[in-house]
Specification:
alpha/beta, Aspartate Aminotransferase, domain 2, 7-stranded mixed sheet, 13 helices, binds pyridoxal-5'-phosphate
């Protein structure tokens, strides 16, 4: 079986561990372990008869619900079959410019989206050396910003860095088109200093892409949305198939976004659990976790990460995310999701054992 380029491939992990996929403790996919919320199941149960009809091609009700949350009119929202589908159309739009700057290491799917439309991608390295992950100097590497575009990700996968509005807005002011993937933004207790959603109405060259997958733990439903200028989103809508958002996914959104109890529970779990995981990993002398703003940590290791991954699977049935699909990281980094305190401790204990070999 080929080594996966995304996290969460339990069939691959189980084949190595010699067990069932359900026996694997999965730290490789950065999904909220508290979800999905029961409110989602109730909404699906109520909506399942709706699968007998085609979904609304314009997702009118869904748009309205998302628009209220984002504080924009409904035409400024485009729901999608996960953020991944919307990133495809972002790739098409970005490819019209002379070059597209990508801060790397980056989520591997950006390459797919950009290559599909022949974009000239310039890989601009983030600096991972100090306490903070620093954005590259895009302009030096790309040239005239009025002819170039950027695809950014905040908070950033895989480093966990969160960049402030003050750091990002000057890029929106200078570059021809800026797409910001905020797939992990909901994990921040206060999004106000970080999210560019409030600036979309002011800059028609800015698009923000959001996902419900991670926070609500529904990767199988496929739910994301873009916030951008109506003219641009109408163009994207004309490029896609007629029914990109399925009826069940559309039906649960009001329940998910209205579930304040789940939201608060998640934020109350994340901060102390992440701090505990960070501490326990820091205690292992061969590891250096980077501080992270989201629900995962990137960890530098003095041991080979693929070797650690294999030993963890074979000896402990634990799956971590190697970073071989991020060419700039290679075999000296791995990424782990934050889970319950007990699971986090199980990971750190297992790492201490496999790390001495
Ligand atoms: C940074 C980033 N953006 C987008 C996605 C895809 O999200 P979705 O499941 O909504 O397609 C992922 C999934 O891993 C991701 O890491």
């Amino acid at each position: 079986m080929r080594r996966p380029t995304h996290g969460g491939n339990l069939a691959w992990a189980a084949a190595i561990a010699g067990c069932q996929p359900t026996d694997i403790l999965d730290f490789s996919a950065s999904i909220n372990p508290l979800g999905p919320p029961p409110s989602a199941w109730d909404a699906i149960a109520r909506a399942w008869q709706s699968v007998r009809a085609y979904p609304d091609p314009d997702s009118r009700h869904l748009r309205q619900v998302l628009a209220e949350v984002c504080g924009v009119p409904a035409e400024w929202i485009l729901p999608g079959n996960g953020a991944a589908e919307l990133l495809t159309w972002a790739g098409r739009d970005l490819s019209r410019w002379d070059a597209v700057g990508l801060a790397v290491p980056a989520f591997a799917d950006y390459d797919r989206a950009l290559k599909s439309f022949g974009a000239k991608t310039v890989r601009c390295r983030l600096s991972l050396e100090g306490d903070r992950v620093l954005l590259p100097d895009f302009e030096t590497q790309l040239g005239d910003p009025s002819r170039c575009a950027l695809l950014l990700n905040n908070p950033h996968n895989p480093t966990g860095a969160g960049w402030t509005i003050a750091e990002l807005l000057p890029l929106v002011e200078r570059f021809a088109l800026v797409v910001v993937d905020e797939a992990f933004m909901d994990f921040l207790p206060d999004t106000a200093p970080y999210s560019l959603v409030p600036f979309v109405a002011q800059f028609d060259n800015l698009v923000v892409v959001r996902s419900l997958t991670k926070f609500y733990s529904v990767p199988g439903l496929r739910l994301g949305y873009a916030i951008g200028h109506p003219h641009r989103l109408q163009r994207w809508q004309q490029w896609r198939d007629p029914w990109p958002v399925n009826a069940l996914a559309a039906a649960i959104v009001p329940a998910l976004l209205g579930d304040t109890e789940f939201h608060q529970k998640t934020l109350a779990w994340l901060e102390p659990a992440r701090a505990q995981l960070y501490r326990e990993l820091t205690d292992l002398s061969f590891l250096r976790p980077l501080p992270g703003a989201a629900n995962f940590l990137l960890v530098e290791t003095h041991r080979s990460a693929p070797q650690l991954q294999e030993n963890l699977l074979k000896q402990h049935r634990i799956l971590i995310r190697d970073c071989l699909s991020f060419p700039e990281l290679g075999d000296r980094y791995f990424r782990v999701a934050v889970k319950s305190p007990a699971d986090n401790h199980r990971l750190a204990t297992a790492l201490a054992k496999v790390g001495v070999n």
